[in-house]
Amino acid sequence: MTESINPLYNTEAMKHSLRTTIVDNTACGGQWNRLEIEAPEIAAAAGPGAFVQVRAWTGISPLLRRPFSIAGTCGDSLIILVKKVGTGTRIITALDVGAEIEITGPLGTNFSCPGPEQSVFLVAGGVGIAPLRFFIERNPDADCTLFFGARDSSELAVLDDELFENINLKLTTEDGSAGVKGLVTALLAEEMEKSDSAIVLTCGPAPMMKAVAELAAMCDFRCEVSMETYMCCGIGACMGCVVPAAGDASGYLHACTDGPVMDSTMIDWSRIK
Ligand SMILES: Cc1cc2nc3c(=O)[nH]c(=O)nc-3n(C[C@H](O)[C@H](O)[C@H](O)COP(=O)(O)OP(=O)(O)OC[C@H]3O[C@@H](n4cnc5c(N)ncnc54)[C@H](O)[C@@H]3O)c2cc1C
Ligand code: FES
Prior knowledge:
This protein is of the alpha/beta class. It has three domains: 2-107, Beta Barrel (Elongation Factor Tu (Ef-tu), domain 3); 116-225, 3-Layer(aba) Sandwich (Rossmann fold); 227-273, Ribbon (Dihydroorotate dehydrogenase B (pyrk subunit), domain 3), CATH 2.10.240. It contains five helices and 17 strands. Strands 1, 2, 3, 4, 5, 6, 7 and 8 form an eight-stranded antiparallel β-sheet that branches. Strands 12-11-10-9-13-14-17 form a seven-stranded mixed β-sheet, with helices on both faces. The chain is globular, with a radius of gyration of 18 Å. Mean pLDDT is 91; it is low at 2-10. The structure holds flavin-adenine dinucleotide and FE2/S2 (inorganic) cluster. FE2/S2 (inorganic) cluster (FES) binds next to loops.
């Protein structure tokens, strides 16, 4: 393993930049793969919500590293869950065990730890399940309910994981092929009505998180969102990832350094489509 391969990332914000190897790469079904990457320093420093920037190709295409949430740790390795959507994710999911990979992290902010006996509503859409999986791994005794919204049943393969076995799971699919038909926020609203208090942690498409943040505000529940915007540098240098800041009509936050995890009240949701 080689440390600090890229001088751009030799900053305080960045902890480790490694050239390392794939320890395991398992197709989980659907478009998902679960990869384990040897990275002891990153695994030791990582907290739920943090992400890594990954590059697994030579040449200039794709040009940029790709960001992935840390989905867990396994000894000296990091776990990432990768859904194939384009060139970069197809290359990463096709890597053999032992293949070289460049990885930078841990980057960004973490979800808060729950207080004792605090109920936690985890709300995931699609690839947003990854950082919430890490939250469950790190908080095994927390009283968690996981709301998972998927387009169809093919996206549920990622839940076939013993970590989710003892979790109270509320499932929705948009086409009704599994769980309750409809949007995950409808189930969340029902549960919120029955609950006195809970912290809401969410990661998924921006419209889903906007709806979750609005529900949380109505019920006066604290809410943290993980903003998975498009990213370029991952270290606050390019403005590629900005999200509109609350209370400042022309202000922006960097999802990569102010986030990805932020209190939902930090964001001006009216400027998010
Ligand atoms: C902080 C963060 C954490 C992430 N965690 C995960 C994760 O744990 N697992 C995972 O599978 N993916 C995750 N993503 C998304 C992942 O980075 C993108 O899917 C990936 O970069 C796409 O690369 P590609 O070369 O395969 O696709 P491209 O060829 O670049 O694009 C393919 C398609 O995906 C869309 N796309 C690309 N990036 C994004 C994005 N950030 N948001 C919405 N649509 C996008 C493009 O518009 C295009 O339609 C995360 C993104 C961020 C910013
Ligand atoms: S990705 Fe470059 S500033 Fe955030």
